[in-house]
Design goal:
Layout: H1 13-19, H2 30-33, H3 39-52, H4 61-74
Length: 79
Amino acid sequence: MAWIELPGDEGTRELERATRGMRRGTGVPHVVGVMKPSVPTLRGVLAMNNAVTFGGSTLGRRREELISTVVSALNDCFY
């Protein structure tokens, strides 16, 4: 969990639009949520992420997700 004060997912209209597609039951994932104070940064990181992962290769979404899961587990990633 972030130690900085973060705005709610619907803190502003711009932030609400930027987080709409990733909100879950408890809000956006913390790894993304720490960028909420700067919506342009949040959008830029999400655009870069979408460009280089999950669909950016010929492996297909399923294989990319499996690789991502294994690498996260090997790195002891908790999110």
